[in-house]
Amino acid sequence: MTDGVAAHGIEKSFGSRRVLAGADLVVPEGTMTAVLGPSGCGKTTLLRIIAGFTDPDAGTVRIAGQLVAGGPSPVPVHRRRVGLMPQEGALFPHLSVGGNVAFGMPRGERVEHWLDVVGLEGLADARPHEISGGQQQRVALARALAAQPRVLLLDEPFAALDTGLRTRVREDIATILRDTATTSILVTHDQTEALSLADSVALLIDGSVAQHGSPAELYQRPATLAAARFVGATIEVAGTADAGVVRTALGPLPAVLPVADGPAIVVLRPQQLRLRPEGVPAQVTACRFYGPDTAVDLVLADGTAVRMRTPGQVDVTPGDSVTIEVDGQVLAYPSPSGRQGVALGEAGG
Q1: Which GO terms describe its molecular function (predicted)?
Q2: Is there a contact between 185 and 47 (Cβ–Cβ < 8 Å)?
């Protein structure tokens, strides 16, 4: 690959703690990849290695085809042409908005152009403390883009914003990055953020990339049980797989991916469970209305507990007897214990 970013076999330890264990990441030019994973999985360390702030113990990094890490002469930070958007924007408080954007900008560029790109026309003379948090993030983006980076790294850039503002700002910034065809890597632990913004998502678990694909692929066809648990809410039910069908307390369920015969864990998304006139008997144990949907806790005849989510309000109360069925094919994985067991409730977010 001659363009974009290619990191291969990245290893990094701090003392006896191994943070990255052979991580691979390829980001095509002009696209956004989200690096998603739990806290402490190595996301920020991988970003710092790409930027040049940290050297890998092993592996290579290429940016636009240039070997910048892992070769005989690592390329220093200031020569990599890598932009960074950290949390909270990190603007210089003593400089105006225009002064912040101009910092590091090549000759011939115009501050007004980049403020126009990020939708902040007329604010060049304002001070950072005089504008909102969302506007500060846009200034940080304009400053990063004005330096004409070969790749832009975004390290949890929306974490400091309140929920309503965060959604609007991150969608606006993602649109700007696409419009400017900026190669970018977004580090986040927020699965909604990763799935909704990025062209592709790399799931980093225990120091290596467990799966890298489109947001839909990662959500609909997670390669492992750990991946399924992290990307989206899950309902887990024990069963026995035989020729691609898993026998469970919810009946025989066809698996969407190949699964070895024997004890298995079936993974459903909460919206796959439906109330139906004919189906598997269950008893309602709790019901919570969230506005757009309702969460209903149920217990099956064999004691298996599950939670379903149904659009709008549902006319059931604790103690009611209902019948449910599963809509569509299911995810299924070999049981981690090698024997049948029951995974209760709803995981993920």
Answers
A1: ABC-type quaternary ammonium compound transporting activity; ATP binding; ATP hydrolysis activity
A2: yes
CATH topology of domain 233-347: OB fold (Dihydrolipoamide Acetyltransferase, E2P) (2.40.50)
Measured CA to CA, the distance from residue 54 to residue 113 in angstroms comes to 33
Which of 181, 193, 187, 232 is CA-nearest to residue 209? 187
Beta-strand ranges (E) seen in the chain are: 5-14, 17-27, 32-36, 58-63, 66-69, 82-85, 151-155, 184-188, 200-205, 208-213, 234-242, 245-248, 251-254, 262-268, 273-289, 293-300, 305-311, 321-326, 331-334, 346-347
Identify whether the C-beta of residue 196 lies closer than 8 Å to the C-beta of residue 231: no
Digit-coded pLDDT (tens) for 13-59: 999 999 999 999 999 999 999 999 988 889 999 999 999 999 999 99
The amino acid occupying position 173 is: I
Structure tokens at 304: 């298996």
Nearest to 159 by CA among 142, 184, 137: 137
Angle subtended at Cα 168 by Cα 310 and Cα 233, rounded to the nearest 5 degrees: 30
What architecture does CATH give domain 5-81+149-220?
3-Layer(aba) Sandwich (3.40)
Distance CA 9, CA 188 (A): 21
Q: Are 284 and 322 in contact (CB under 8 A)?
A: yes
Answer whether residue 338 shows pLDDT above 60: no
**Selection from 269, 272, 205, 281 nearest residue 236 by Cα:** 269
Is 219:231 a contact under the CB 8 Å cutoff? yes
Q: Identify the band that residue 228 occupies on the pLDDT scale cut at 50, 70 and 90.
A: very high
Per domain, the residue ranges of the chain are: 5-81+149-220, 233-347
Instruction: State the pTM of this model.
Output: 0.86
Task: Say if CB 166 and CB 63 are below 8 A apart.
Answer: no
For residues 103, 53, 70, 208, the Cα torsion angle rounded to the nearest 10 degrees is -120
Token code pair at residue 257: 């991916």
Residues 45/20, Cβ–Cβ less than 8 Å: yes
